[in-house]
Amino acid sequence: MTQLMVTAADDESDSPTAEPSGALTAPGEPEPGQGARDSARLGKLAATSALPGAPRRLRLPWRRSAGGVAGARWSLWALFVLAMAVGQVTFLSRAGSGFGNVCLVLAAILAVAHTLGPLHGAGAGAAAGLLTDLLPPASAPLGGWMLIMCLLAAAYGHLVEINRPGPFASLAAFAATCGLAIPVRAAVLWFAGIAVPPAVIARTTLYTAGWGLLLAPAALALAFAFLAPRNARPCGPARWMPAASPGHAASEVGP
Amino acid sequence: MAGLARTRNVVVACVLIALGLVVLDTRAGVGGYLRGPSAAVLGPLESLFSAPVRALRGINSADLDALRAENDALRAQLGSAALSKLSKKQLSELAALAPTQGYRRIPAHVVAVSTAADLTRTVAISAGTRAGVVAGSAVISSSGLIGVVDSAGPASATVLLLSDSTAHALVRVVQSRQLGFLSGSGERSSCKLVLIDQLADLRDGQTLVTAGSRDGGPFPAGLRVGKIAAVTGSAADLSRAAIVTLAADETALDAVLVLTPEAGP
């Protein structure tokens, strides 16, 4: 008897007719023609989504396999972050004191860290932070936002990767990280010799955390749609789908 | 484990670079070398993005011309209800402080405003060194003084608002003619005033103008700053201060004038 081990991730091929590329183990020597039969069986499994409750991902028509258009996707995401950064200072900050606390760039970077993990989050955070430091009318010390976004994205991505929080815990952690950026920012300014009144720090922290909570779902959904690789998804929003049963991730299929 | 080590290496490298930039910018001011080219690229982009905002608010070049006229009449605007009660002699003395000569007036639009999360209060304007803007120039709106040019790129400049926690100005109370130090509170359109003479008259509703300086910089004398909203502390223990509401609403800034000394700041 041959036992096949199918992982849940194998269900996620971009084309219903695509050959599953997941782990396929067959103890002992395969019988003649056994490989073709197994492939056909697995293809049927994939086509009919035979794994109930398996996490599904948002699919966009232009998505390709992981690595194929990674550069294009990152370029699109970089343009998106640039537009958010410019739109933030040209539109939102002028809309009123409440909207001035919206931190779109930080939300976008935390979404990257949530979707791809701390390594990508730290790199994207450093780049976006440098952009924020250079974007007029920035006047505070250069490198301040680079430091903050890199550290917070790495910490948040690590937290999500290790603890794998559920949806509500993820939102809470996202908002708390947004809020945490303000005291860290105040500390950086203090290091540069600029003292910010504590009342301003406290109020801005609360507002920014609140906006972070509101922005989190959209930011995560966008990051997942743009950046999530095909198979590797250690901490993506797909985890928010109904949890798979313990025996689901590694189903055993008989001959 | 290898992934964790790689992440740690990347984070440590980025943090070291960022800290290095912070230290270099704070101690040696290297940020100016990077901000100039970035402002040359990103400034026009911000102007492009802010065009719809200006269109929505109905601001155009005619408004800038109107602003010039308003600025010409700015000294007259100093004649608020309280000021008009002053004697002709006092008025003429104040008028003598107001800038009538020696300043180039460069019109510009506010194209970007710093976010609250930045914890600094700055705006970007659409005029830069090409138009003659230099760091240290005063910037006014039709309501009064708003700040000073902190840095200037080719096509845009960054203005440090009066409410920024690092901003300071020497001001004069119109009614009592007392001098005081105005410092930003870090909150929108709000500052703190401490009079040099702690026992001098200080009341709600009094009007503040810039006191100026011998060489006219950074702020020309006689520009309207704001009004005293509340007085705190006691003169007896020399802790008296005033909360000042600035004349210019910082979130409603559109057309501004940069006052550049003709002989340089």
List keywords for this structure.
heterodimer, A: 255 residues, mainly alpha, two-stranded antiparallel sheet, 7 helices, 2 strands, disordered N terminus, B: 265 residues, alpha+beta, 6-stranded antiparallel beta barrel, 30% helix, globular
Structure description:
The complex is a heterodimer of chains A (255) and B (265). By secondary structure, chain A is mainly alpha-helical. In chain A, 55% of the residues lie in helices and 3% in strands. A two-stranded antiparallel ribbon of chain A has the order 1-2. The longest helix of chain A has 30 residues. The termini of chain A are close together. In chain B, the strands form 2 sheets. In chain B, strands 1-2-5-4-3-12 form a 6-stranded antiparallel beta barrel. About 7% of the residues of chain B have low confidence. Chain B starts with a helix and ends with a strand. In chain B, a hairpin with an 8-residue loop joins strand 1 and strand 2. Chain B is globular, with a radius of gyration of 21 Å. Chain B is an alpha+beta fold and 265 residues long. Chain B is built from 5 helices and 12 strands. At the A-B interface, helix 2, helix 4, helix 5, helix 6 and helix 7 of A face helix 1, helix 2, strand 1, strand 2 and strand 5 of B.
Gross morphology of chain B: globular
List the chains of the largest interface with their residue counts. Answer: A-B, 61 and 57 residues
Biggest sheet details of chain A: 2 strands, antiparallel
- Integer average pLDDT of chain A: 72
The number of helical runs of chain B is 5
Task: Give a short summary of the structure.
Helix content of chain A is 55%, strand content 3%. Chain A has 255 residues and is mainly alpha-helical. Chain A has a two-stranded antiparallel ribbon with strand order 1-2.
